[in-house]
Amino acid sequence: MEGEEIRQSGFESGVGGEGSKDGADGGAAAEEGGGAEVEAEADAEAKSAEKTEERRRERLKRRIEHWIEHNREHAEGFRRAAEEAETLRLHEVSEVLREAAKRLEEASSLLERASSALEAKHGER
Q1: CA 106 → CA 14, 15, 36, 65, 74, distances in Å?
Q2: For 69-95, what is the mean pLDDT?
Q3: In sequence order, what are the residues at sequence separation of 6 or more whose Cβ sits closer than 8 angstroms to the Cβ of residue 9?
Q4: Residue range 9-57, pLDDT digits in tens
């Protein structure tokens, strides 16, 4: 009786069972019931990873946008300081401050490219 129950469940190891010598067919049938559960768990993990990635992308986008705005504010401050330096006849200081403003604007252009690339990459998903 007990041996008969084991054979019917498909977990016997070559003891008069159906299918392959080691009873693998029965084991696979038993695993199928749990397969949907495993698949659902894998789907949930994939969705969770997707959401985590999405949050990280959004955080990166916000940081880049913040840096662009921050650079613009600083560049404007540098230009105002350059004008002040001119009124004080500090021509070299004024020139260097204007160059610093220009370079910050260049950095902002690069950040804008990074932001655009991030948006384009996000759209591909």
Answers
A1: 74, 77, 54, 15, 13
A2: 98
A3: 26, 30
A4: 444 444 444 444 444 555 554 455 568 888 888 888 888 988 999 999 9
Q: Express each pLDDT in 101-111 by its tens digit.
A: 999 999 999 99
Q: Could you report how far apart the first and last alpha carbons of the chain are, in Å? A: 57
CA distances (Å), 69 to each of 25, 36, 72, 106, in order? 64, 49, 5, 13
The label of the residue with tokens 């949050």 reads 55
- How wide is the angle at C-alpha 63 spanned by C-alphas 124 and 119, nearest 5°? 15
Cα–Cα–Cα angle for 47, 52, 56, nearest 5°?
A: 145
